[in-house]
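tl;dr need the bound structure. longer version: we got a ligand (flavin-adenine dinucleotide) that a collaborator sent over and nobodys looked at where it sits. i said id run it. heres the input, straight from their email, havent touched it
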Amino acid sequence: MVTIQNYVRAKSLEEAYELNQKKGNCILGGMLWTKMQNRMIQTAIDLCDLGLNEIEETEEEFSIGAMVSLRQLETDAGLNAYTQGAVRDAVKDIVGVQFRNLATVGGSIWGRFGFSDVLTVFLAMDTEVELFQGGRIPLKDFAEKKQDRDILVRLIVKKTAGRFAYAAVRNQSTDFPVIACAASCVGGEYRLAVGARPHRAVLLCDEEKFLSGGVKEESVKAFANWAKAQIPTGNNHRAGAAYRTRLIGVLSQRLFCKIGEA
Ligand SMILES: Cc1cc2nc3c(=O)[nH]c(=O)nc-3n(C[C@H](O)[C@H](O)[C@H](O)COP(=O)(O)OP(=O)(O)OC[C@H]3O[C@@H](n4cnc5c(N)ncnc54)[C@H](O)[C@@H]3O)c2cc1C
């Protein structure tokens, strides 16, 4: 059980950051993960008054505030038009609508959970993370970083012309994924993000140029075989490493074929 001693609705990001420097204090997202822990929080810091609950779209980019819910991602027309529904496909099986109305982008990305559909899908795009102290850094670099006491302010997705597709395998609907794959072709570069390996999601770019001649049955197969060898997988109680590696091969072929049809 979580016990909260003090609750503060921060009036500015500066105030939230200062409060968050004290070990024992904690930023609140939707609290769905935090509430499952057994811990005492001295001061819970709520960002709900800081206007971070909007998805803003300009000609160049999407700006997604840390307090945007997963349900907002799922239903945002602009984001889903740009990603051909990949964002919706990534979050639609996360527990249920009521859960997705509460779970936030900030908590999901900050957590860098191994099982994260959210981290996986955004890794396949041109995404940056804006940190209060650390400024803007690529999501790929953020995903590799250890947790510190900074604040995730927003995600920025550049509207580089691209095609996207997402698929995950679950043993049972609404369970954590056994594997999560997001494929993309962004600015001509083919990419595959794989999460739930069961470790944290990683991004693989087509450095060997398997797909540079276009998405054809043979080139997709060659890329998939290469991806299987490049991406380490592991065992947990949901699935074994060999099964996960096999799934990477199957899903990446399906996703790149889907991208090729567009
Ligand atoms: C039962 C269950 C099933 C789930 N299934 C899936 C699934 O299938 N796929 C999937 O992708 N995810 C899944 N999740 C994860 C979920 O989608 C959210 O990612 C998770 O709950 C964290 O989001 P939150 O808003 O609840 O964050 P919280 O629990 O409030 O916060 C999580 C952590 O992030 C920190 N934090 C929050 N916001 C910020 C910020 N702006 N800056 C800095 N630190 C911050 C908090 O201090 C805390 O340490 C599941 C979670 C649960 C509890």
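gonna send this back to them w/ a short note. The radius of gyration is 19 Å.
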